[in-house]
Amino acid sequence: MDVVKRVHVVPVGYEFDRVLEPIRDQRADLVYLLEHDSDATERTEVDGVSPEARAEYHEKLHSELESVVPEVRSRRCDLHDVYAVLGSVTTIASTHADDSVYVNVSSAGTIAAIGATIACMDVSTDAHAYYVEPSTYAHDGKAEPSSFGVEQTETIPTYPIESPTRDQVAILGFLREPSAWGGFDDARTAPPKKKDLIEYARDCGLSFMADRRPPEERASEDKGAFRVLDAHVLDPLVEDGYVTVESVGRRRVVELTEQGENAYRAFKHKLTDGA
């Protein structure tokens, strides 16, 4: 029988007690540290903290955590990008679908907090957000952690939201990659038609096309396939602002929006974990 692990996910800013104490108190079995990833800032200040202070802080935090937790893993993540944080948290939570996953939303600033909280709202992500209230705040986060002590740890109430389905994420990925539909870097062809999406869905065995007859068995154009595509994929994606569908001559072409690009980044793990 598999043992359920207590997994903590912690974006790492410049906190110490707010990271360590909840993990110690809840006797976590595994901790993921989301550490800021940006090559351009490795030799410069980040949020006012020098590279030397940042390195010393990370080393001390790792050392303390490893003394109280059986396993600590680091994952690079752009903590200044909401969707990068969202994607990292949902991916980790998906990997640990059978474990109890807790996410610290108070350890790395506002942007990371937003991404982590939204991740916990996703109905396909069974993760619990928590906020740590410190005893005192530091006067100068450049020379010391941003706060000291822990007053209390509170579970954050979240409101369920629906993320894109696996089929919808697959279509976003198809639209994102020009070579998948004949586009080119310098001279892209016209955006793909709905027919292109249907053919891609059949080739990949996407579930919304699973019960449709293959082209060679159809006596005429399968108009029902277009209705299924609209109902299960395109209409929800258009409503969420992830794609646009426009008429160009007699063609109905589909294009990915910037919001759709971000959604793909956040939920692409669904293509590998079967969610």
TrEMBL record:
Superkingdom, taxonomy of origin: Archaea
DUF6293 domain sequence ranges: 156-267
Domain HFX-2341-like N-terminal: start-end pairs: 6-137
Pfam family, one: HFX_2341_N
Name the UniProt record assigns to this protein: Uncharacterized protein
